[in-house]
Amino acid sequence: MLFRRAFFIPYIYLESLSFNMRSFVFILFLLSIVSCSLAIKIKTGDQAYELKRYPLAVDLLKQEYNSAKSAEEKLQLTDKLVKSYIKLNQYSAAYDWAKERSKFAADPTTLYDFAYQAKAVDSFDIAIRAFNTLYQDSKDRKYILEINLCKDLKDYKPSDKEVGIENLSINSASSDYAPILFENEYLVYVSDKESIVGSSIDPGTGRPHSDLYISNEEGNYAYPFSTTLNSEQSEGPVCFNETNDIVYFTRCESLAERNAYCRIYQSSRFNGEWSEAVPIMFFEEWTNVGHPAYLVSDSTLIFAVYTPDNGHDLYYSQKGERNWDEATKLPDFINSEASEMFPVIQEDTLYFSSNKRPGYGGLDIYKTYINASGSWEEPIALKPPINSGADDFSFSKYINEYDTSKSIAYFSSNRVGGKGLDDIYAYSEKTIITEDKDLDENIEDFRVNLAVRITDMQGETLPGVDVNVKGTRTTENYNTNDRGFFVTEISERESITISATKKDYFVESKTAIIESPSYYGKDTTIQINMRLEALEIGKEIVLEDIYYDLDKWDIRDDAKPSLNELINLLNENPNLSIQINAHTDCRSNDDYNLELSNKRATSARDYLINNNIASDRLTAQGFGETNPRNPCICNECSEDEHQENRRTSFTITAQ
Fold first, then answer.
1. Looking at the structure, do residues 528 and 623 belong to the same domain, yes or no?
2. In a domain, 298, yes or no
3. Which one of 7, 364, 438, 532 is most buried, by most CB atoms within 10 A?
4. Residue 29 has pLDDT above 70, yes or no
5. Residue 71 domain flag
6. Is 475 exposed, middle or buried (0-12, 13-18, 19+ CB in 10 A)?
7. Per-residue pLDDT tens digits for 51-97
């Protein structure tokens, strides 16, 4: 059986969506197909369209249009052609047929849809004329807003602070989209380029099924993300937990003879390998759910759901002790009568896409955030060049780790000038640093507040946390209230470092960028969420990715990043003393394993000392094979189980 995989997402265009929405989008009811067992012979364009066989529908509808006699028949055929091309993500062809359709219909709805198709191909003057006609006929001021949005797109010029937009090298002629940062140096994204698993083609699009890929942060190369997670089904947008060892992603699979349904799956990483994915059942299996985003501060998933009554809306669920709570719909001022999808979480800011009107294009990117009272703010649309006349979605923004005056955002779009059906773009900007005297002369009278919320790793609020806020010119100290919050007006205009300290917890630090008030254009609150991990004397903490050559104890280059993280931890927590532990697997004899583990523990300790950690804070101990994490029978242990036992760790001995 073949499955439709439009633009990944396991979600596809339903007839209930407005025609300008696009095939790739959240689609619930990824359906397709006609299996051979059904033995359906498709004879008309309408049959092909209803069965989601859009390439075939286009061919048949064109033939029927050429032989059609009446204007009414041609109107129906052009309407299906426009919708078919949108579902194939071919907006130029959709616009051409929208122009043809306008010859046979002059109603406001058709003209409104035509204007949006004009915007999708950057024909802003044509769109403005259409909106002006609609305004003159109705005097509805929403069309004035539409005209102004078109002018924003048409007249956009980069500001001094914008470095620019880059179409990444990983983009192909297919659909590449939904990038998310992984381990602070990689991008994981979705593509329906040549299939990784199998060679089946979706008859609904004529393209392969979508899979997950991984790239470096610059987008210079791409490889399959995981042979465990990529399947013959359709995989889509992902998110990760804070430690990057749990992944949540969308998969659409066949649960009926002709329909495929989308669900969120979860997988855990162990020794570098992802486990078999299992679905999270928020709803009955025939409800389409996907596009997960993880809100770290509250252990919450936000995701898109399709229901026949409401279309696509955003829901959330919090992680309980054993299971996820019942899914709850986000407020109505976030969800609209249109479709909301592609959520991405950055700290407490939620980015998502909606095709509500008025708007810049088909799908526009919006953002909202959790304010100091714990409530969501009214969403606002991002400005050009992020939003365009086409579909823009899956936006995520990151601060440059090495130069905090710069930030980079990744997003997906099918705008004019791309390499394929959908492309991944990087958008860079930098903070413009001006002299104090210039600030005094030009600054607008807006307030910039800093709101910090601190919880433990389980999401419980932490009162009485000492917080140090250090900028380039000032340093201030604060204390969280009984709800784990503090809010203050901030005068810094560059980067600040926020350090949170509480007895019996590790110190946590974050860096934030504070723009000039004139940048925000209104009173603004910068939201920062921090999670503190409890200190436990004697608890083993395994250092990941520390490996040694056979019968060696030298620190290899690939082990240094993990040890460098430990160095940072010790520098941030100067009162900690630790013991470095080394363990072997059960192979070789006891005395050899004990001696080898002692040498490896000592080697790790020496590395820390050579990097300016005081020797009196460090001890080293080898345990050989005496303390396995996995008590398997030695000659029956798998290689993964041996690796689990062959580890380097540390324990806190004093604080």
1. no
2. no
3. 7
4. no
5. yes
6. exposed
7. 888 999 999 999 999 999 999 999 999 999 999 999 888 999 999 99
